[in-house]
Amino acid sequence: xxxxxxxxxxxxxxxxxxxxxxxxxxLGPDLVTATNVEDLVNAERNIINDPENTAxxxxxxxxxxxxxxxxxxxxxxxxxxxxxxxxFKRLSKKTLxxxxxxxxxxxxxLPSMYALVVVGNGRGSAGYGEGKGFESSKAVxxxxxxxxxxxxxxxxxxxxxxxxxxEQKYKATKxxxxxxxxxxxxxxxxxxxxxCECIGIQDLAxxxxxxxxxxxxxxxxxxxxxxxxxxxxxxxxxxxxxxxINHKYYGEAKISSLRx
Length: 260
Prior knowledge:
Distance between the termini: 90 Å
Strand order of the largest sheet: 1-2-3-4
Helix content: 40-55%
Shape: elongated
Structural class: alpha+beta
Order of helices and strands: HHHHHEEEHEEEEHEHHH
Number of helices: 10
Number of strands: 8
């Protein structure tokens, strides 16, 4: 058979002559005429060289498995995140750390970008994630996806502050947090203030002792929120009523709200 991609058919007349002879053999002695052979060859040449045919049937680009389409929605949201797309759009994302890192190998230095992102819905759920990539945008994307996967719900007293004062230590960082009255605001370090906005904490005071490394501060703050003891846990551990716990620690206002 004649290979259509063999050569430039327009300039190589010998190839066209061979093509005509092949068509004459296919038609046989009964149907072969100069007009029939010429028409068949021209028809096939038009199909091959017709630019409209190429536009109507564009070449398909093979998509490798596991490679997502480069659209904004697919690069940010997917079913693996286990969260609806509508809730994903309402999440608050804070990129707190972006820095360049270098890995030393025997071949030399391998540079990469590191990012730490905090994600929250402003109603008590938040999480942080870390990511690396050759570009800062890729690192932030990976960190954001990891943060969404690591989201947890943290209890808040009156949906505005923590339940009690907390002292938490992580490596060389020691963090002290104090619950405050309504309208006090968040008087904490800037990194913790950004996390409070993602979680929905409005009144809080804090102090950092020791290392002020932002990575350690963020991890210490999340561990401190997880270590809160709720009134239900105290009542179950001490064997007393929940109303008595609320009266002792939170006063009459909490009891009246529970009765209502």
